[in-house]
Every structure is written in C-alpha cells, then in structure tokens.
Specification:
Layout lengths: L2 H15 L4 H17 L6 H5 L3
C-alpha cells in the first residue's frame, strides 16, 4: 500500500463521514513526527527535549 493511497483513503473517510475535525490532529501529529526526525542528532535536540 503506497502513501498516496493511504492519504486518499483517509481523505475519503473524512469527506464521506464528515470527520473534518480529525484533520488538525493529523497535521499536528505529522509535523511533530517530522520535528522529531529532523532533530535526531542535530543541534535542535536540546530544544526539542525541553518540550517534554
């Protein structure tokens, strides 16, 4: 299953069932995951760890 079909299915689920309130939660989770991956072993790591 490719990422494109996963996002397409997720969008169809939200559109058909009117679950658009899930979109901000998903966006925040993706951005947070990207931040964690980008800060792994970088200069930003001490600043990310202070969030927790």
């Amino acid at each position: 299953m490719s990422n494109v079909s996963l996002f397409k299915e997720l969008w169809e689920f939200m559109r058909v069932r009117k679950k658009f309130w899930l979109l901000p939660i998903i966006i925040v989770m993706v951005l947070f995951g990207a931040l964690m991956m980008a800060s792994q072993g970088s200069v930003l790591a001490p600043f990310v760890y202070t969030i927790f």
